[in-house]
């Protein structure tokens, strides 16, 4: 893929490039040297090629005396308003084959800054064995692109090519990826292509063409993807993470907020470009619109575009069933949550495509049932569902260990790809509040916005002073994992239960999931559900009771079971205790 953005090194020097089609004059600013006038081509791309500018060169651009970093900077020195740094390309890994197939994915979502006391790439690398031993096969890393200050969730990035200085160097990040691969762990990176962060975002001042003034996202102006050069900027970014850093995949944040006319062109080509760099790339989308066609497979059962989608539907109904909270996405009056769960387990989505209105478990838009089950990523907690609560507390603070084990059982042993938030494998209670590190004037704006979001978007009745100060250091420190907590007996017991589930999935479900799923059949009695997923290689059956009361179900356990909670077989009646579930697999009889 020809590169149009960022510094381009050759044998003797560097070509500097910046897209700013409406600018009149641009200077390249080199540290301790005279400004260098840049030249514009017909596409609005400015360039300069001064002598003696190899790796390590500090540079910025300037218009009318106002200096700013390269939006495609590969490394920053001095923050998101500081110097961009010329970097030599990282050496290719030489890896030709995928580390593991997609159906063998068990994901842990991780925030680099809070996953270790060091809060760095190197600090996370030292703790990768823990995630491997828990049973995870992939880490999904929250955005690591440069952001203002020293702490951030990562979604306020302005320089999306540069790893955050707070986390370490480019080499440190690549070492993290390489170490993960040595341990058999895939790494998937979360990227944000729907907006830029508001702070230290200089692009609007010199390239207003980048934005569509008619599109407003929840975080600022929308990106204008009708422009070829804008699309190219993001294609190259995706290619860099997959190629140069050797990530195994990407998770694309909130693609439903990409609203310009060229959205479908951009997304389709984005997937194609990613797969041209890494053919087996694991490409995950977050899409509130549940557009099933983005997840379609070809005749060989390979993704045409994206591999899978974060499935809020299954989160919302499971969360509602165990907490009774009619908010955070599950607020449909008159809906039947047990029917919704039955449909979500069998089909994937509860609300298919763009279907509107309440769900009785049968709504159809673009039918999800046509998709393979591993097109859906299921979870009961993620950074949003924890951090976008007023108390920022995890599920162990709101439900019993038995209910959380039930949620883990259903999520881990259903055929959809499971995702857990770091520490969830041991029932950790570490909160994950929203945090930033900004100058006071900007921080005041963020504080006010959080109260508005909490009241209007997340339906939390908060008074002034109820929310932690996102700019306070102690708010960030509350989110840092305390690794000594894993040594507590209660945490060790929960960790062992999680390992058992992961081991069962690996030994019993993976062989089935390696073959096509031909059908999913369900039955229900009251709060009890039985789902049988019929694969070409055999059948996985799960029976569950999402209730505080025992339930009976006409069902026979005909294979070695794994269970959480209480169950008993009485003839052809299966009795399930409160918040109990049982799963088993069996080989389908030959049709010959």
Automatic annotation (TrEMBL):
Name of the protein described by the UniProt record: Malto-oligosyltrehalose trehalohydrolase
Pfam families: Alpha-amylase, CBM_48
PANTHER family associated with the record: 1,4-ALPHA-GLUCAN-BRANCHING ENZYME, MALTO-OLIGOSYLTREHALOSE TREHALOHYDROLASE
Active-site feature positions: 253 (nucleophile), 286 (proton donor)
Residues annotated as site: Transition state stabilizer: 384
UniProt subcellular location: Cytoplasm
Protein's organism: Devosia ureilytica
Gene Ontology cellular component terms for the protein in this record: cytoplasm
């Amino acid at each position: 893929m020809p590169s149009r953005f960022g510094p381009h090194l050759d044998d003797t020097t560097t070509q500097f490039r910046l897209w700013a089609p409406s600018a009149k004059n641009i200077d390249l600013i080199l540290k301790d040297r005279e400004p260098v006038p840049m030249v514009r081509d017909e596409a609005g791309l400015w360039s300069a090629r001064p002598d003696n500018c190899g790796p390590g060169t500090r540079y910025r651009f300037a218009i009318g005396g106002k200096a700013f970093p390269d939006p495609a900077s590969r490394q920053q020195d001095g923050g998101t308003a500081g110097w961009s740094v010329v970097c030599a390309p990282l050496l290719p890994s030489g890896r030709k084959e995928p580390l593991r197939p997609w159906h063998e994915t068990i994901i842990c979502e991780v925030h680099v800054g809070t996953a270790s006391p060091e809060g760095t790439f190197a600090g996370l690398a030292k703790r990768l064995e823990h995630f491997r031993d828990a049973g995870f096969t992939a880490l999904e890393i929250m955005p690591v692109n440069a952001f203002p200050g020293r702490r951030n969730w990562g979604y306020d990035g302005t320089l999306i090519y540069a790893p955050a200085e707070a986390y370490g160097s480019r080499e440190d990040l690549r070492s993290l990826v390489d170490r993960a691969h040595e341990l058999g762990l895939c790494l998937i990176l979360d990227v944000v292509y729907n907006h830029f962060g508001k702070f230290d975002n200089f692009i609007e001042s010199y390239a207003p063409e980048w934005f569509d003034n008619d599109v407003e996202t929840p975080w600022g102006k929308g990106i204008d993807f009708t422009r070829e050069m804008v699309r190219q900027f993001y294609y190259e970014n995706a290619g860099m993470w997959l190629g140069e850093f050797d990530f195994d995949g990407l998770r694309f944040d909130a693609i439903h907020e990409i609203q310009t006319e060229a959205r479908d062109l951009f997304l389709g080509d984005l997937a194609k470009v990613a797969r041209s760099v890494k053919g087996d790339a694991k490409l995950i989308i977050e899409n509130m619109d549940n557009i099933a066609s983005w997840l379609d497979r070809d005749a060989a059962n390979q993704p045409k575009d994206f591999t899978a989608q974060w499935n809020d539907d299954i989160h919302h109904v499971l969360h509602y069933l165990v907490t009774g909270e009619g908010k955070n996405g599950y607020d449909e009056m008159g809906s039947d949550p047990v029917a919704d769960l039955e449909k979500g387990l069998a089909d994937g989505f509860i609300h298919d495509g763009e279907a509107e209105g309440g769900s009785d478990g049968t709504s159809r838009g673009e039918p999800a049932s046509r998709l393979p089950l591993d097109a859906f990523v299921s979870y009961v907690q993620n950074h949003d569902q924890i951090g976008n609560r007023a108390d920022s507390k995890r599920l162990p603070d709101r439900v019993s260990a038995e209910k959380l084990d039930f949620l883990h059982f259903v999520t881990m042993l259903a055929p959809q790809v499971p995702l857990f938030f770091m520490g969830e494998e041991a029932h950790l209670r570490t909160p994950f509040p929203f945090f930033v590190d900004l100058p006071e004037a900007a921080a005041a704006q963020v504080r006010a916005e959080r109260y508005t979001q909490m009241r209007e978007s997340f339906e939390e009745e908060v008074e002034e002073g109820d929310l932690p100060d996102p700019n306070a250091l102690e708010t960030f420190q509350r989110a840092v994992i305390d690794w000594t907590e894993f040594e507590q007996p209660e945490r060790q017991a929960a960790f062992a239960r999680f390992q058992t589930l992961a081991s069962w999935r690996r030994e019993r479900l993976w062989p089935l999931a390696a073959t096509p799923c031909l059908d999913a059949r369900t039955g229900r009695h009251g709060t009890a559900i039985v789902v049988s997923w019929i694969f070409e290689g055999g059948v996985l059956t799960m029976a569950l009771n999402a209730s505080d009361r025992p339930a009976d179900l006409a069902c026979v356990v005909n294979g070695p079971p794994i269970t959480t909670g209480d169950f008993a077989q009485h003839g052809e009646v299966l009795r399930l205790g409160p918040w109990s579930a049982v799963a088993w697999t069996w080989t389908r009889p030959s049709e010959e």
